[in-house]
Write a structure and sequence with these properties.
Largest interface: A-B, 58 and 58 residues
Strand order of the largest sheet of chain A: 2-3-8-7-4-9
Distance between the termini of chain A: 35 Å
Largest sheet of chain A: 6 strands, antiparallel, barrel
Mean pLDDT of chain A: 91
Oligomer: homodimer
Structural class of chain A: mainly beta
Chain lengths: 134, 134
């Protein structure tokens, strides 16, 4: 069984390099959403945290030797599901960005860790995990 | 352009109904991962928060009248990208669950809000947003 997705937009980010993770990024840029979905951007507010699901479109295909990988900032190899590597069974990325402004079908954001042109698959509000969690 | 994904496993959850969101769920269950990916589960620890990306496989197709929707627990209509509705342009779901135990290719979790048999697309560590964020 396969699941087919179509991007809803793309990242417009003139930086030639981006930090390794959104939690350590101050890079600003734009999420350009297909105008057919513009009405769905209603209620996204400046200052809020926005979850962006995206496609690691420039990653090599996943192979079994990538089930464990050494991240650049860690000394040992870790299981692929414990790291945010772009080389994973399904090349899905997740970033939590700060919304600076919404202008029509464009969202200005801060915290980018995606490459210019990255296809965006979904946007969601950030809901903090249950306070009962460890 | 379309992106093709293949599930890496599925949710095994005998409950016939689930809470509306993982942040209000205490439901326990199992994430059953395809044995070919078992080595990638290494380093997932009991007590940690795990991000699960999944396919809303029982949602009706998205149509433009769903760009704004009234969530069951909110009085007004909101843009689809400001809510967690399963009816969205790409039917991707995101939950943050508590890991109870890892047994081979099975992860016991708490906080489930997915239906029994839901296809799992990816697992990631939960990384809190930057402390500078609002």
């Amino acid at each position: 069984m396969t699941i087919e997705l179509t991007p809803i937009g793309y990242v417009d980010n003139k930086s030639t390099s981006v930090p390794r993770h959104c939690s350590v990024s101050k890079v600003e840029g734009r999420l350009v959403v297909d105008p057919q979905y513009q009405e769905g951007l209603r209620d996204i507010q400046p200052g809020q945290q926005l979850v962006v699901l995206f496609h690691f479109d420039r990653s090599p295909p996943f192979t079994p030797d990538r089930l464990v990988q050494k991240p650049p900032h860690v000394k040992k190899k870790l299981g692929v599901f414990s790291i945010c590597s772009p080389i994973r069974p399904n090349p899905l990325g997740l970033s939590v960005l700060e919304v600076l402004e919404v202008r029509g079908n464009v969202i200005l954001v801060k915290g980018l860790d995606m490459l210019d042109g990255t296809p965006i698959l979904d946007l969601k509000p950030f809901v903090p995990p249950s306070p009962d969690m460890p």
